[in-house]
């Protein structure tokens, strides 16, 4: 879609799923954004060197993680736009990889445009650089503004942020997967996170704050 003077900005999209591309294109255009779809990562990277998008949507799935390489390349080239990873795979490990690689958020398909627009608005006002994963183990897992986590909740959260699944955490801590799911739900309530990606973003963001203010 050609750029116009009243546009709220360009949104770059890479997604092999025609339904997702159509949903993003129609929904975001209705909300004032110009949407540009790219056939592959190379085309997007080339265009991003000449223009700064309002945000970027990159598809990643369990079988083909090439989208994460595009994400990392955008970050290495100092792309300042928030980047969203979309995937039909809602697993915690993939969400962790996406956030660690520099994604602002991780959206599980099928995408809901009202939710996407809300997250895009949040991103435009609150975007910040992700922390290095090397620093996660050194942070206290204290998140200002939320109710204190119990010792067990901190243990569960520490395993979540290194990408373990509920079953893996359950085996490590000697608990049932259902019990771990209960702890995870409690952590998200206390933190005020609606999604696993939002929870990870809060944790990684706090780690960055501790780096700057030891």
From TrEMBL:
PROSITE patterns: HTH_LUXR_2, RESPONSE_REGULATORY. Keywords: DNA-binding, Transcription, Transcription regulation. GO terms for molecular function: DNA binding. SUPFAM superfamilies: C-terminal effector domain of the bipartite response regulators, CheY-like. Residues 142-207 form the HTH luxR-type domain. It comes from the Bacteria. Residues 10-124 form the Response regulatory domain. One of its GO terms (biological process) is regulation of DNA-templated transcription. InterPro entries: CheY-like_superfamily, Sig_transdc_resp-reg_C-effctor, Sig_transdc_resp-reg_receiver, Tscrpt_reg_LuxR_C, WH-like_DNA-bd_sf. This is Two-component response regulator, FixJ family, consists of REC and HTH domains. It comes from Bradyrhizobium lablabi. The lineage of its organism: Bacteria, Pseudomonadati, Pseudomonadota, Alphaproteobacteria, Hyphomicrobiales.
């Amino acid at each position: 879609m050609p750029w116009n003077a009243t546009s709220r900005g360009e949104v770059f999209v890479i997604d092999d799923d025609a339904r997702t591309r159509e949903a993003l294109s129609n929904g975001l255009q209705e909300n004032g954004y110009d949407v540009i779809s790219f056939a592959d990562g190379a085309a997007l990277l080339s265009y991003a060197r000449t223009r700064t998008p309002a945000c970027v949507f990159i598809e990643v799935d369990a079988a083909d993680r090439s989208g994460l390489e595009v994400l990392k390349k955008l970050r290495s080239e100092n792309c300042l736009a928030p980047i969203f990873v979309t995937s039909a795979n809602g697993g915690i490990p993939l969400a962790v990889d996406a956030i660690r690689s520099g994604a602002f958020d991780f959206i599980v398909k099928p995408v809901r445009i009202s939710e996407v627009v809300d997250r895009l608005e949040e991103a435009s006002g609150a975007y910040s650089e992700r922390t290095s994963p090397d620093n996660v183990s050194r942070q206290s897992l204290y998140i200002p503004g939320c109710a204190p986590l119990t010792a067990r909740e901190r243990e569960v959260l520490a395993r979540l942020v290194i990408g373990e699944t509920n079953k893996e955490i359950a085996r490590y801590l000697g608990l049932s997967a259902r019990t771990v799911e209960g702890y995870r739900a409690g952590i998200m309530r206390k933190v005020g996170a609606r999604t696993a990606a939002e929870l990870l973003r809060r944790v990684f963001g706090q780690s960055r704050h501790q780096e700057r203010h030891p």
